[in-house]
Amino acid sequence: MALFLCFLFSLIFSATACNRCVHHAKVAYTQQSALSNGACGYGSLALGFNGGYLAAAVSSIYKGGAGCGACFQIRCKDPTLCTKRGTKVIVTDLNQNNQTDFVLSSSALMAMANKGKGQDVSELGVVHVEYKRVPCQYRNQNLALRVEEMSQKPYYLAVKFLYQGGQTEIVGVDVAQVGSPNWSSMRRNYGAVWGTNQVPTGPLQFRMMVTSGYDGKTIWAQHVLPDDWKNGLIYDSGVQITDIAQEGCSLCDVSSWK
């Protein structure tokens, strides 16, 4: 009977996506500094993200860097130790140890705990949790681009995307001179950093291909870098990504966040 219900649900939902699924896994923890200097390339800027509640995620979540900046709500399964709400983390690194889905910053781990239970949670070492992806929200903050030090005008440009909102992933980036239809494709160097050796002259505009579950769309930032852009500076894109993503869940996954 259970197999039949699974098949029936698959027929009903095969062409759709459910709300962001609840997943069951394990997490470990480490120091914030280790995660800020992680594979996404945020560096010390990450310490200012989300109150320093950071996480390294396994490759299925990191997605070759596309998962950098994604936000997750995580809570441990023991109500005697942890709050019902849990803690919200942002992905800043790749977790190469497949024994846990996430490695949290120590502050994020402690934030899951009930009052007076932080030490008990940390002593577990590995914590059984449930988690779901949630929107990233940056109050009064647009998507921003930081020009990386490796850039060498006019031969090479590398930018890092910061403060990406919503539940989306940037999977493609193009750059062009403001007002020009001649776009140059950028490639993901690593993590949140994209680069190109075909650098247009003048002030620059960007367009980003953004996916949200099964859907994709283009975000156009019309005036981002001035003609005299400089390495190490952060520039406001003038836009923000706020899409709420969906995903295909396991056929019989009817778990909900309560």
From TrEMBL:
Gene3D superfamilies: Expansin, cellulose-binding-like domain (2.60.40.760), RlpA-like domain (2.40.40.10). One of its GO terms (cellular component) is extracellular region. Residues 37-141 form the Expansin-like EG45 domain. It comes from the Eukaryota. Pfam families: DPBB_1, Expansin_C. Residues 1-17 form the signal peptide. Residues 155-237 form the Expansin-like CBD domain. PROSITE patterns: EXPANSIN_CBD, EXPANSIN_EG45. Keywords: Signal. One of its GO terms (biological process) is anatomical structure morphogenesis. InterPro entries: Expan_Lol_pI, Expansin/allergen_DPBB_dom, Expansin_CBD, Expansin_CBD_sf, RlpA-like_DPBB, RlpA-like_sf. Belongs to the expansin family. This is Expansin-like. It comes from Actinidia chinensis var. chinensis (Chinese soft-hair kiwi). The lineage of its organism: Eukaryota, Viridiplantae, Streptophyta, Embryophyta, Tracheophyta.
